[in-house]
Specification:
Elements: E1 7-14, E2 22-28, H1 33-44, E3 52-56, E4 59-62, E5 75-76, H2 82-89, E6 93-98, E7 104-114, E8 124-129, H3 139-151, H4 158-164, H5 176-189
Parallel strand pairs: 4-5
Antiparallel strand pairs: 1-2, 1-7, 2-8, 3-4, 3-6, 6-7
Helix pairs in contact: 1-5, 3-4
Length: about 200
């Protein structure tokens, strides 16, 4: 099995959030973790405005702080591939933590392997359910409160939350075309460039 021709289908679910927010994607097994982070940002509709970490076994992968002053540093996600996590930990489930304040925990399940396949055109979004919560809403508990407030005109914070959040926010409506376009744009950016040989 060549890692360069192996892809994996992943199901990513936002933990402790109702209604369910889930994305199903196919990604190359050799995808760097910083690029997997960008893929998840695009697929969910986050704005990439906060720090992140991947967790599996006892390992932590993220972007180390420039000074390294805040305790043990994560392994550099820019130098690690998804295949490294799989080989080093044997994990079939990985956690992707986004925004250490709101602590959005995305549970990534590695569902199916595709050997001897082309990884061109990947990452690819297969399924999307549930709209991504607004940034800085206060994590899963804050999001539940936000949904209560905007759905109940008698709620004391109804008007404030309605004006604070996105217009006409419906947690069940997903703009799948926009999410697909964002993920597809990444596959275009990361497409391997073919070398041209110039004749002398």
């Amino acid at each position: 099995m060549s890692l360069n021709t192996t892809a994996v289908r992943i199901k990513v679910t936002l933990k402790d959030v109702k209604p369910e927010v889930m994305r199903c994607l196919v990604v190359p097994l050799t995808l760097r973790l910083d690029r997997l982070h960008l893929t998840l940002q695009a697929a969910f509709g986050w704005t990439n405005s906060h720090l992140f970490e991947f967790l599996a076994g006892d390992g932590r992968w993220g972007i180390p702080g420039p000074d390294g002053d805040f305790g043990p540093q994560p392994i550099d996600a820019r130098k690690t591939r998804l295949s490294n996590i799989v080989q080093e930990t044997g994990a079939k489930t990985i956690h992707y933590l986004y925004d250490f304040g709101d602590s959005w925990d995305h549970v990534i399940k590695l569902e199916k392997w595709f050997d001897n396949t082309t990884t061109e055109g990947l990452p690819l979004l297969l399924e999307a359910a549930g709209r991504c919560p607004p940034e800085d809403v206060g994590g899963a508990p804050g999001y539940a409160e936000y949904l209560d407030a905007i759905s109940d005109p008698t709620h004391p914070e109804h008007e404030q939350m309605r004006l604070w959040g996105p217009e006409q926010f419906d947690p069940n409506v997903v703009d799948r075309k926009a999410l697909e376009a964002a993920v597809n744009a990444l596959s275009e950016i990361w497409k391997p460039r073919r070398r041209t040989i110039r004749s002398k």
